[in-house]
Write a structure and sequence with these properties.
Elements lengths: L6 E5 L4 H12 L3 E6 L2 H8 L7 E5 L5 H10 L6 E4 L14 H22 L9 E5 L15 H24 L3 E6 L16 H15 L4 E6 L8
Parallel strand pairs: 1-2, 1-4, 2-3, 4-5, 5-6, 6-7
Length: 230
């Protein structure tokens, strides 16, 4: 299939890696549907040279009304659904208030997973990819330093929900589901001391999605192709 015919929906695209993915996929000739939470995010995307291949919607993955509205707007088969929504939240359990834990878990795990479930029948059978933005901090086996307890737990939960998505409707449709580690990236969340910039991460992620498309299954993979232990 020619790149010009392929469609990506990138959720959470107003800044950072989400914005980088929009730019990367447009540069590869894809048609991109991107979501933002507010008008500021729309203005950022409006500044891109869209060439008729970029559509922007407002949607918050923590609001069911927004999820349903987005689902109703998607009327063409998607080759890629990439859910990038997420927040860092409190760093450890002693700092975390119950309402903060609820917000982080809903934004990082349940909201993205619910959106993916609602959209799964819009993903192109056999070759379509569902990717959810995970993190190396979601690897239980690699957790040798501790810290960021609530954030880690939310992303572990997201990984489990991604596995359940694949075992259920994803596998039935022949989809590939990826939990993606973007690396330590120079974003508002990653900080200026991070080891890679946004274009490098976005390019690597897009390369890995291209390599994995059509292979089926659920994998925990990094921007550089490294498979992470669960």
């Amino acid at each position: 299939m020619a790149d010009a015919a392929r469609i990506a929906l990138i959720v959470g695209a107003s800044r950072g890696i989400g914005l980088g993915l929009v730019e990367e996929y447009l540069s590869r000739g894809w048609t991109v549907v991107a979501t933002v939470r507010d008008g500021d995010g729309e203005a950022v995307l409006d500044a891109l040279d869209r060439g008729g291949r970029l559509t922007v919607y407002r949607a918050d993955v923590t609001r069911d009304a927004d999820i349903q509205g987005l689902v109703e707007r998607i009327d063409s088969p998607l080759d890629l659904l990439f859910v990038n929504a997420g927040v860092m939240g409190p760093k450890d359990m002693l700092e975390a208030l119950p309402e903060e834990i609820d917000r982080v878990m809903h934004t990082n795990a349940f909201g993205p997973a619910r959106l993916a479930w609602f959209l799964v029948d819009r993903i192109r059978e056999k070759t379509g990819v569902v990717a959810l933005m995970s993190t190396g901090m979601a690897s239980i086996a690699d957790n040798t330093m501790g810290g960021y307890d609530v954030y880690r737990a939310s992303k572990v939960a997201q990984n489990m929900l991604a596995r359940s998505l694949w075992i259920g409707p994803g596998q039935a449709r022949g989809l590939t589901v990826l939990s993606v580690n973007p690396g330590w990236v120079q974003t508002d969340m990653g900080g200026s001391g991070a080891t890679i910039d946004v274009p490098t991460s976005a390019r690597g992620i897009a390369d890995q999605i291209e390599a994995q498309a059509g292979s089926g299954g659920h994998r925990f993979v990094g921007w550089n192709g490294r498979e992470l232990p669960w």
